[in-house]
């Protein structure tokens, strides 16, 4: 008789359950009994072992016989299979112990634990206690707890939330199981889960009012915050569970922080994607704000009002309920009220999310064509970022100015200059590439503003002075690129990545007018022969590689400003060597014909390895001049050789 025939015979005996003597005798005759016991049977779409079959049928004596014949019972009880649960659902990775509990065969389950040393949570599924709660099996929960097989508080789900048993039951709204767990000693204020919350928070989050009431009556504290600083009441309000929130508000009114209540009220009208046509969020805000004013009055707790700013139309927060009642039907004014409240509360905490609603509101102002209000609002947001020591950028302003230019909307010179002066703020004075590129973009926009007929002489002078101030600072990117490098490089155009399609149609690089402005107003500080770190390129090297029409005019401009045509980069190439178009090569060749004697001498000194560095003081103009005529390439070759 082959193994498969024997296995089938054993399977039939185990299913019947009343042939235990025959099973015992049959197993004793098998030469490889462990192999038979651990064999997984395929029956339709189920995979089961003999032990799992016995557990499903509740054959406790058969289970004992199977365990007695195993030389490794711990391994036997760990084997998992696939079957259907008591509700007819196909379940994967089940053990014999799980099957016994699912079918309510608790005497057999106890045998598996006592004799088979089955581990309660030895499965890739959730722990048995969590699984029983998930399936609303109070009987299994009672078996596990009353026989001391589990720790109520420490047993947690394996999934991402990591809820313990009470939190899990509360989140599912299983009032009966919650009541039982509390009766059996579950800690109602136990902190757990990935957000370090409580069972009350879980129930509030999911809107299970009866569970919330049960937990509160059992002594759960409604003021405990999770790792995000959210109380159960906040969780309820934020997730639209208003009946739960109102119940908790009545419980916590004496201990509740008024600021907390006001922030919840504001959260109704400034979340992302709020529907402006839906009045209900504003109604909810009004109701909560009225409660907050009454609480302030009861506690004699007046607001500390911040100074009015143009970004908020010089509005100030309402101090009294009477003042608030006057604006409760004005949705735009309520929105500003929410922004004012958030700034008062969140700015001292340096909460970065404070500015998100301002940025979103600005987008809506742009949709309405109210560009200036948006710019003032975003300028205010920029200053808030500075006050909170959070990094920010001017890219939004570059975009909105380009949008105005594209739609022929006049740009106020005063407002433009106000934004330009933000380049002097701490976050913008760093050498980050995006900061300096935004500055170059603003200079390019300035050139377009100069074309406006209404510009006064004083306004032109102010913008020119700003350009001079920027040039005086001699800013460079981490790659050593100057403002001049960026103004003549095609890469500057390609690097525009914020609203790129809209900005690129207005701003183009290389840019002749930007280069002119830099050379005119920064002539005392702009070095036409400055080299970058990456390739040792001068501005002339970069623009010579461009095939754009403006490139030829920019080359002439640079040469007229004193840029040296025979400077060599790290690859020992001159701008002529880098040129890609015939027109560019012809232009540079004509200029090469008139190379000065000074340049020829510099090239000769480098070529003949004449030691000039100790003749004159280091970093003198003459040393620098010689260096640009081939030393960069020689240094590069030396460094490459040393690395190899």
TrEMBL record:
Instruction: Check the record and name the SUPFAM superfamilies matching this protein.
Output: Ankyrin repeat
Reply yes or no: does the keyword Repeat apply. yes
Which keywords does UniProt give here? Answer: ANK repeat, Repeat
Residue stretches in coiled coil: none
User: Which InterPro entries does the protein's record reference?
Assistant: Ankyrin_rpt, Ankyrin_rpt-contain_sf
Instruction: Kindly name one Pfam family recorded for this protein.
Output: Ank_2
The residue spans of each ANK repeat are 161-193, 195-227, 535-570
Q: State the source organism's domain of life.
A: Eukaryota
Keyword hit for Repeat: yes
List the PANTHER family: ANKYRIN REPEAT AND PROTEIN KINASE DOMAIN-CONTAINING PROTEIN, ANKYRIN REPEAT-CONTAINING PROTEIN-RELATED
* Annotated protein name in UniProt: Uncharacterized protein
